[in-house]
Design brief:
This protein is an alpha/beta fold. A seven-stranded mixed beta sheet has the order 3-2-1-4-7-9-8, sandwiched between helices. A two-stranded antiparallel ribbon has the order 5-6. It has a single domain, classed as LmbE-like (Rossmann fold), CATH 3.40.50.10320. It contains six helices and nine strands; from the N terminus they run E-H-E-H-E-H-E-H-E-E-E-E-H-H-E. The model has no long low-confidence stretch (mean pLDDT 95). The longest helix has 15 residues.
């Protein structure tokens, strides 16, 4: 098994979680030369609009727009996956396969029940992945232990108070394009499917407006917010915006 070393690995409970929550940050990191991958926990099969096959295509298109190195889907059950040993081990295998320095994952408190579940599942697996006595294999080859240096949670539906903000001003167009790749999810005047909270015609504008408002807090055009359980430090006061 050939291991691929990634700088950042972003996890989302559903396809489109990552694009909506931290798509601008991913685009910026890739622009700056970082290797980034995406892992979707489910195929979003319980979504009101579209279906799993459509979501697969949309996720692939969004990945091309962002320019990520890899994107995989763990095929956990949408709405019903839990934080147990079986699910943790599948994520540990992924962490040990790609050995990211930084992991991005769902919001710890949010409207959709899968978001906090996914957040806890991934953060727990990040800790367990560093324990050498937990044995995992891929293609019959034993993996070495790996623990990411940092785990950050991107803000989603709720306006949580971020611990830090990332300036994405130069990458808001890429973020928006990646979001719009999920066309079945959003406003379409010709669609006969039921309307949802994210399919109304103002939703995409609201996402952009929120990034602008977060940007206002640090005097930039657009920003994305993250929370962290770990204390954050900087090399110098000049590092702060």
């Amino acid at each position: 098994m050939k291991e691929i070393k990634l700088d950042i690995l972003a996890f989302g409970a559903h396809p489109d979680d990552i694009e909506l929550g931290c798509g601008g940050t991913i685009a910026k990191e890739i622009y700056n030369g970082k290797k980034v991958g995406i892992i979707d926990l489910t195929r979003g099969e319980l979504g009101t609009r579209g279906d799993a096959k459509i979501r697969d295509i949309e996720a692939k298109n969004a990945s091309k727009i962002l320019g990520v190195e890899i994107r995989e889907n763990l095929n956990f059950r949408d709405g019903f996956f839990i934080n147990d040993e079986m699910h943790q081990l599948e994520i540990i295998k992924i962490l040990r396969k790609y050995r990211p320095e930084i992991v991005l994952c769902n919001a710890e408190d949010d409207r959709h029940i899968d978001h906090p579940k996914g957040a806890k599942l991934v953060s727990d697996a990040c800790f367990l992945s560093g324990l050498r006595k937990i044995i995992t294999k891929i293609d019959d080859l034993t993996q070495g232990e790996w623990r990411p240096k940092n785990v950050y949670h991107y803000i989603q539906w709720k306006n949580s108070n971020p611990d830090f903000l990332v300036d994405i001003s130069g990458h808001i167009k890429t973020k928006t394009a990646a979001i719009n790749a999920y066309s079945s999810q959003f406003f379409d005047p010709n669609s006969s499917e039921p309307e949802t909270l994210i399919s109304n015609k103002n939703f995409i504008s609201n996402v952009i407006n929120r990034s602008a408002d977060l940007g206002r807090l640090i005097n930039v055009g657009h920003a994305e917010g993250f929370t962290s359980k770990k204390s954050l430090g900087v090399n110098s006061l000049q590092s702060l915006i």
